[in-house]
Amino acid sequence: MFNQSFFSLALIPIISFGGVSSEIVTPSSQNRQVIAQQLTTSAPSFWQRHPRRKPNISRSLTSQVCAIAPGLIEADEVWSDRPLFLWQSEGKNKDLQLTLRDYDTQEEVWTQKVNITDQKVSYSGKEPLKPGKRYQWQLSGSKTWATFEIMPVEQRNQIQLDLQAIEQKLKANKASLEEIALKKADYFINYEIKNESGIVHLWSDALQVLYTVEKPSSSFVEKREAYITNLCTDSTTTNSQK
Known about the structure:
five-stranded mixed sheet, 14 strands, disordered N terminus
């Protein structure tokens, strides 16, 4: 977990999201190297922390599907312009369609056929989603549209530099792909965004990182699956552990 020296913070200009103002609180550029160094030496904390779920998260499709990300836990902002759509399911062998639409125009941007048991699918449109724009997604059979916004270019570029520094340092120390993924996930869940509900973090991106590991160990897969399932087992809101 970040130590106190991480929080010499600079406020990035306010971002408007659905009429609600939020401001991204990030480490100043002079502290990026310190952050990367600290992340490479601290013990992974990801599995011990949990996001705040939004109050209206519920199962749909006759209690078979629980949508998780993006836009349903903690921050509405998402760093990745090719996000991972993630859900948890108890159903078996049911075909669905995931629809992504522009928030402002309500026009469809991308659709993808999935099976209820897939429990995830990455955005694979020809063009990346646009920084600063809001989108909504839904699985067929659900009445709820989840809303999220791709982070503006300036903040996205800063995060890209931070992630590159983390990865370079870890590779130099012969860290495994799983260790690198967990450190990047730690980075996202410590990246702070302030909105009317308080401080929130980039949990959608953190979860996405866990699925970038090539040929993960059985232990890593078991932890990941148990973690994702746990996000939908409790209907109450769980506060992030600090």
